[in-house]
Amino acid sequence: MSTTIFNREIKRLIISENHPVLEYVNEKFKNSRKHKNYYGFFDDFLFKYGILTLGYSPTLNGNKYVPYINCSRNNIFREEKGITDLSNKAHSSTECQKIIAGYLIEHLKYLKVWNFENWNPELNYEKTS
Questions:
Q1: What are phi and psi of 102, to 5 degrees?
Q2: What's the first-to-final CA gap in the chain, in angstroms?
Q3: pTM here?
């Protein structure tokens, strides 16, 4: 899976926002010697916060995909456990990458740096009804 569009979109969104969590995450990325792109970084970084995978699945009708997030029971975004589609329709791979990047930035902006620094995966962070 090519992640060029995702990386470009994340970089654009992080730079255009003035938010402590986005600055914190971007510093973590810059200080990461393991990752050369944002997609690999987020895949690894968010895993420890209960975000298992981000990606897009092909549909049966050709070159269209549905972007999704897969979360563990306790996750920093307070999503339900399992796979959640990020769109109710299929898109090109380029659009999927933009949707995933937008989703990440919007959900990160709801958090505080404290959430990352004091994360406890044993606590129940699920949404309450």
A1: -60, -40
A2: 36
A3: 0.90
